[in-house]
Amino acid sequence: MMQALTYPNSSVRNEPRLAIGTHCIPRLVTGQLLMLGDNTTNFEVQKITEISFRSDWWEHNPGTGANLVWMLQIELYRSLATNNRTGIEQGFTRMWQDIVVSPLGGQGIQNDWSYHFQRTQLLSGAYMDKIGLLLCLYLFYAQELFNMN
């Protein structure tokens, strides 16, 4: 699969009409890149890194919710695979901005720990599991990366 996604002129990589393409393919390939570690070629690392920048949260500004969390997850995986400490710091800082209790009627975490997203939609735990998991990943990997010599 990695070869298909990194093949030059691949329609998978170059399909701009995929509405959910900003995070689906990049999340898949950066996860594989991280899993394979040293068993990838420089070409594969380069192409997957290029693919991963389709989910640039600083340009797309997805606001809050799972789309943002997935984009930050991609940044974490890309940063770990390329030993980019700045990317880890930026992603964690952006992630931490959403960890606030919102006033009633606002978007985000409510004082009853439910999550209101897209105005009136009530999601009890639908996004909190993703937020919690990604924060744990950031904390774990940041500790590992920053303790390395």
From TrEMBL:
<protein>
    <submittedName>
        <fullName>Uncharacterized protein</fullName>
    </submittedName>
</protein>
<dbReference type="InterPro" id="IPR008929">
    <property type="entry name" value="Chondroitin_lyas"/>
</dbReference>
